[in-house]
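Job type: complex structure
Entries:
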Amino acid sequence: MAKLKVSFAPSVRRLPSYLHIIRQAQRNRDYYISGTVIAQELNLEPIQVRKDLAITGIVGKPKKGYPVDDLIAAIERYLGWNNFHNAALIGAGNLGSALIGYQEFQLHGLRIVAAFDTDPAKIAGKVHGVDIFSMDILEDKLRELAVEIAILTVPSPFAQATTEALLRAGVTAIWNFTNVKLKVSDDIVVQREDLSSGYALLSVMMQTKERAAAK
Amino acid sequence: MAKLKVSFAPSVRRLPSYLHIIRQAQRNRDYYISGTVIAQELNLEPIQVRKDLAITGIVGKPKKGYPVDDLIAAIERYLGWNNFHNAALIGAGNLGSALIGYQEFQLHGLRIVAAFDTDPAKIAGKVHGVDIFSMDILEDKLRELAVEIAILTVPSPFAQATTEALLRAGVTAIWNFTNVKLKVSDDIVVQREDLSSGYALLSVMMQTKERAAAK
DNA sequence: TAGATTGTTAATCGATTAACAATC
DNA sequence: TAGATTGTTAATCGATTAACAATC
């Protein structure tokens, strides 16, 4: 199998923010929402919103916009957020606790069924209602719970070794919050979340502004 | 001033991961590192690495590669990571604590001088050595400490109102971890970190794989 | 009906990749 | 010297934006 690449990746990344706006409309009991309105709310071009929504297969009505309920369903179906997947948190530190606390992901098919840590003080306790197990029983427990997704928030030096254990336990998708490029085979899904890259962008923007101001 | 847009944004986002590899080479006492080696390490094309590094102004040596020390200096200068900026954490929850704990950012010009929260149990305490103040004294304290960057990790419903207080206090850059699109004037730097967009990508990759496997 | 909005087709823009001469 | 690697110029690819007919 060749390396997994998402087509329309930039569009896919924008869909959750659209969903957020559209849900507000739903709470507002609106029947329709137009691409123009979504665009205004997010400071985007209407044509971009329309193109992005088109990939979900939704069909709108000229003059009115998109039917709110159908649009939400279309986006969720496209993202696969209508199906559940068992997930485990590997590393129950501050970041891990924050992630497990986000109700949002739970509403979108992510069912966190266990957490793992090496700290004896944490083991046998809970984070946001989820049991914390010893890293020693990682493989057995993951298999037992049929975990598909691992949320990896261990310290970077342990990332690769931990990953190998995850794969032995049958995990097929890794949400990687370490700053390590994991070595895995092409059939494993890896999404790396890299705060440094966002910080780099922030830094460059600040410099650009400073330089502009100096003129 | 027009809306700030970073040219070469994708390249800028990759620079921190290059820096990571190059620092390893430095620890290894290597004098030179080639684009080919960096590319191999990160599963990228060598030409992409060379093009990305070129924006920092570094000049390499045919056959040898780039001088390690100079390359690190060039990347850090380009990113502005050789200059310090005062920053404050707004919202000292789990995510905020995790961010403040990352030594990495502190090494790259981010000097977190204060944290703010509304929880009386946290106020007057510390997170990773940083004082936590009441949100009530936000504006005065930010001004007093000459804070430029706000790391915004408050609950989403408070994001916009908090932002307005930040701007009144003279903050010019916001690292936004809420899922709210902040309304600010064009001269304010905002970098939004959106976990949902990464999760959307992970979800689509998983679906793509499932569908491929079903065939 | 008039006009706002969709969805399609084409044009533009920017990023990635390829080709290759220069060079240490 | 031979050959690996740089850096430049050109080609390709994909994403964004523009234009506009269709339509409710």
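Summary: The mean pLDDT of chain A is 96. The radius of gyration of chain A is 20 Å.
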